Amino acid sequence: MEKKDIDWSNLGFGYQVADYRFVANYKDGKWDDGEITTEATVTLSECAGVFQYAQTCFEGLKAYTTEDGKIVCFRPDLNAQRMADSCERLKMPVFPVDRFVKAVEEVVKANAAWVPPFGSGATLYIRPYMMGTSPVIGVKPAEEYQFRIFVTPVGPYFKGGAKPITIRVSDYDRAAPHGTGHIKAGLNYAMSLYQIVDAHEKGFDENMYLDPATRTKVEETGGANFIFITKDGKLVTPKSDSILPSITRRSLMVVAEKYLGMEVEHREVLLSELSDFAECGLCGTAAVISPVGKIVDHGKEICFPSGMDDMGPVTKKLYETLTGIQMGKLEAPEGWVDVIMEE
Ligand SMILES: *Cc1c(COP(=O)(O)O)cnc(C)c1O
């Protein structure tokens, strides 16, 4: 199969129309068979549920080429299950987990020419999402839905090495107590846009959101979970019902314990204990781990001993082990790497 003529190493993180996408429709209480199509445009009623009451949720994962030439993706079953959880919370019909995984595989296979080659640092970003399509004007769930998966090639997240970033403590919340912080709903992102634009204008890379009830505990950023390393080498990750359960974070917890022999704590993390940690990072599908050098809490700077030049040593080990597993250099736990094509 001939690859697309793309300068893979210089791709950014933007949308580019690929050849094929998967589309399935829900009507009269059931999903149709779905199909792979070349139609990249969606035409909907002006009154569709997604436009009126934001009935939509999404997922994000990546396909990439391993050193031995296989096209794989990472734990797609967890994306399928998380999307099922999101749909239940938003009164949307679940797209069955096994069909979700099959559809991801199908759409990646169809777009094999768009999967970046090994060593380029680029990946094929996969975006499954669902929306209410039938007209809704009284407040209630839509009756019809569309589930789509498109793909788009994206460049290496860090060009020229992972430089530590600076985060500020946000004055706004991203989630409410007992709200929707734990699901991947578009609405959570809409309400974070004001804050991220403001943070960038003021020279910060990201916002740290606190627990919405007491504002004393660390939650996450707009799109990534936190990891912390203690001075004695433990991995600590914040626990809360309003944090989105990152698949990268859950995988790193296993890597730390099973591959690196580290102690792992998944617990509440107080804002007031941040200065006790040796290293800090953000984790998510896009970057795997972004090192955090500094957190600014209303003028008060918390600088991690790992500094602003490099990823901390333990964070780096975690990063290298997880990406080694993803790229097929290290043996993966059962079921983590889903082989889509053997070349
Ligand atoms: C998607 C997302 C993450 C990262 O999850 P991964 O499964 O690791 O990609 C973290 N926080 C929020 C709010 C998210 O939407």
Word description of this protein:
- The chain has 343 residues and is of the alpha+beta class.
- It folds into 2 domains: 149 residues, 2-Layer Sandwich (D-amino Acid Aminotransferase, Chain A, domain 1); 162 residues, D-amino Acid Aminotransferase, subunit A, domain 2 (D-amino Acid Aminotransferase, Chain A, domain 2, Alpha-Beta Barrel).
- It is 22% helix and 27% strand.
- It is built from 7 helices and 17 strands.
- The strands form 2 sheets. Strands 1, 2, 3, 4, 5, 6, 7, 8 and 17 form a 9-stranded antiparallel beta sheet that branches.
- α2 crosses α3.
- The termini are close together.
- The model has no long low-confidence stretch (mean pLDDT 96).
Question: What characteristics describe this protein?
Answer:
single chain; 343 residues; alpha+beta; D-amino Acid Aminotransferase, Chain A, domain 1; D-amino Acid Aminotransferase, Chain A, domain 2; nine-stranded antiparallel sheet; eight-stranded mixed sheet; 7 helices; 27% strand; binds pyridoxal-5'-phosphate
Task: Set out the fold topology.
Elements: E1 21-27, E2 30-31, E3 35-37, H1 49-53, E4 56-58, E5 61-65, E6 71-74, H2 76-89, H3 97-110, E7 123-132, E8 145-154, E9 165-169, H4 186-190, H5 193-201, E10 206-208, E11 225-230, E12 235-238, H6 247-259, E13 264-267, E14 277-284, E15 288-297, E16 300-303, H7 313-326, E17 337-341
Parallel strand pairs: 9-10, 9-15, 12-13
Antiparallel strand pairs: 1-2, 1-3, 1-8, 4-7, 5-6, 5-7, 6-17, 7-8, 11-12, 11-14, 14-15, 15-16
The protein binds pyridoxal-5'-phosphate.
